[in-house]
């Protein structure tokens, strides 16, 4: 083990367990070290654990439990298997090569960001996310298997979705599903506490839209010929320009 790694372990208050693994009382920062594998096997880390911006192809050796947030973004990972099962903060695994989220913790108290991967489905995603869930810029064709509860915003824009079936039952913030291939809004939660953006899709009707949107509702750049299904309550602005019905009315 080189001196730099030893110093990182020392600064994080790490100690070796009888089984050869390492536990740490503080934060572990192994980012930007050009690692292809972790230098030791971790067990428990009370603070955050950061192994982002490396060349990791596996999460073997990461802690079983992380008290704070877990960062593994910008690596070459294809699976979350071997990663922590218990994370007290957020979980950031974006900009990797995942095709599945199997191996994720069941619950994440903070954010869960898995955008910019190669996901076609959300199978294996956490069931509950306390913060935002960000799965945009993948190759998703379905939201089935995704979280049931999202405490903040849900972002699934820039995918290949034709339907929103499988969306979370409850979303505590905004819902962004723009730049997909949606032909229906069926499957969305009844109430959105932030913005609802479904612009740049292939919608001809707003049937299935949320009943209540607390902030702005954007459905511009679609193929709407009717506003049937429009939310009963929109707290902010309603944008529907660049649709056939808009040009017919104006």
Please explain how this structure is put together.
The chain has 250 residues and is mainly beta. 6% of the residues lie in helices and 20% in strands. The strands form four sheets. Strands 3-5-7-9-11-13-15-17-19-21-23 form an eleven-stranded parallel sheet. Strands 1-2-4-6-8 form a five-stranded mixed sheet.
Mean pLDDT: 97
Radius of gyration (CA) equals 21 Å
Structural class designation: mainly beta
Major sheet attributes: 11 strands, parallel
Number of DSSP strands? Answer: 23
Strand order of the largest sheet: 3-5-7-9-11-13-15-17-19-21-23
Distance between the termini: 71 Å
Q: Helix content range of the residues, please?
A: under 10%
Q: Any chance you could write out the topology, listing elements then pairs?
A:
Elements: H1 3-11, E1 14-16, E2 22-24, E3 28-29, E4 42-45, E5 49-50, E6 65-66, E7 70-71, E8 86-87, E9 91-92, E10 107-108, E11 112-113, E12 128-129, E13 133-134, E14 149-150, E15 154-155, E16 170-171, E17 175-176, E18 191-192, E19 196-197, E20 212-213, E21 217-218, E22 233-234, E23 238-239, H2 244-249
Parallel strand pairs: 2-4, 3-5, 4-6, 5-7, 6-8, 7-9, 9-11, 10-12, 11-13, 12-14, 13-15, 14-16, 15-17, 17-19, 18-20, 19-21, 20-22, 21-23
Antiparallel strand pairs: 1-2
Would you kindly provide a brief summary of this structure?
Helices cover 6% and strands 20% of the residues. With 250 residues, the protein is mainly β.
């Amino acid at each position: 083990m080189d001196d730099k790694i030893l110093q990182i372990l020392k600064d994080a208050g790490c100690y070796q367990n009888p089984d050869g693994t390492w536990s740490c009382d503080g934060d572990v920062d192994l980012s930007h070290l050009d690692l292809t594998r972790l230098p030791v096997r971790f067990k428990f880390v009370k603070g955050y654990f950061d192994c982002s911006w490396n060349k990791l192809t596996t999460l073997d050796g990461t802690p079983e439990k992380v008290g704070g947030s877990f960062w593994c973004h910008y690596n070459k990972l294809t699976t979350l298997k071997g990663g922590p099962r218990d994370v007290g903060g957020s979980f950031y695994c974006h900009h990797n090569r995942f095709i599945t989220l199997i191996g994720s913790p069941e619950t994440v108290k903070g954010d869960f960001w898995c955008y910019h991967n190669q996901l076609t489905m959300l199978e294996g995603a956490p069931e509950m996310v306390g913060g935002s869930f960000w799965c945009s810029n993948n190759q998703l064709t379905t939201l089935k298997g995704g979280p049931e509860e999202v405490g903040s915003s849900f972002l699934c824009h820039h995918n290949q979705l034709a339907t929103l079936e499988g969306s979370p039952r409850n979303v505590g913030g905004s819902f962004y599903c723009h730049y997909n291939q949606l032909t229906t809004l069926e499957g969305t939660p009844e109430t959105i506490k932030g913005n609802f953006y479904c612009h740049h899709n292939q919608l001809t009707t707003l049937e299935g839209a949320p009943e209540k949107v607390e902030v702005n509702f954007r459905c511009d750049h679609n193929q709407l010929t009717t506003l049937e299904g429009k939310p009963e309550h929109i707290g902010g602005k309603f944008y529907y320009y660049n649709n056939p019905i808009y040009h017919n009315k104006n």
